[in-house]
Amino acid sequence: MxxxxxxxxxxxxGSPPVDALTGxxxxxxxxxxxxxxxxxxxxxxQASVDAxxxxxxxxxxxxxxVELCEPRYQAMRDPDALAKLDLFRVIKEGKVGLVAAxxxxxxxxxxxxxQLGVEPGAEMRAAIDEGIARALPVWRIDRDVAITxxxxxxxxxxxxxxxxxxxxxxxLFVSEKVEEEDIERLKEGDLLESTFSEFARQREPLYxxxxxxxxxxxxxxLRQEASTGTRPNAVLVVIGAGHLAGLAKQxxxxxxxxxxxxxxxxxxxxxxxxxxxITVIVAALVIGGFIYGFSQSPELGFNVxxxxxxxxxxxxxxGCAIAGGHPLSILGAFLASxxxxxxxxxxxxxxxxxxxxxxxxxxxxDFAHLRDDVTTLGGWWxxxxxxxxxxxxxxNLGTMLGVYIGGWAMIKTLLGS
Length: 417
Fold this sequence. Notes:
This protein has 417 residues and is α/β, with parallel strands linked by helices.
């Protein structure tokens, strides 16, 4: 491995200024006859954008590799991708959380770009644009962000998972001005990594899923791409500076076949059954409570059912109302909430969100303004797309509270009999 922190001395005359590369974190690794020039970038830095352009202008490369997965690459190449979002499909396929998380990150990015005058990820866009302009293949070497988040969530316990997920949505409740210390952290690594940086450093399994595994995955992707088709002589690799050392080490020393390594690192951990068991237990207790109540007297049974329906239904409807739901969405939440704990495939949030998307179908302007609207808390309620997502979450939250409160009310009623 060659350290080129002061790269640029051998650049030929007539090319862009050498200053663009001075002090930039660059490592060079040779593996299987291919020279990889790895540029560690800051995702909110104009200097990193300049360094990418300088390297491509001043050196000959056969390919460009970027720290992007295919979905993020397509989103970057297609600014209108959000306009093609099928809300009904997102809700039915259970991808509301992933879409909301991506929107929260997008809002955070937009605030950064407004504050710094540089779009986060601009160096990746520069690498893509410059590579395409030079007719170079652009390799997308990062692991799909959805897989990374799922593996990270599986690496920690329930409460730690809740804390981790809250990090994604913290940006919704803070002031629009991004704190200086947050900006400095973002200069050290990518947005996903920086969002969880403090949390990940204290938990080795989370660090492994978010950072170390991606280092290994990207190194394997480079080796696999280089072995496909015409073998390149030189590849420019543009990654966040936080991955520089780890990727270089993996690229030098990894011995496992790259295709097998990537496949293994893309495997989703087996699902746990605790959620199913909780649903079964709650359903059994509720139905058992109904049966016991009616066995004592019709009046008691009716009273127990009424308390359950009103408590869960009202709180589910309140959650939908807080999300700014349509009256029919609120009614749907009220009707579905008492049934949610009794049927694992039924979600009150899914019902209310589907009705909301149907009654207040987002228009072109909602999709066009979505990136701007999610930069503020009020914007999430103002935009019809993000409001559907809020409807899903807040209705489910209200129902969950209703289950606990309604269950306790049932127990008190039965014991008082």
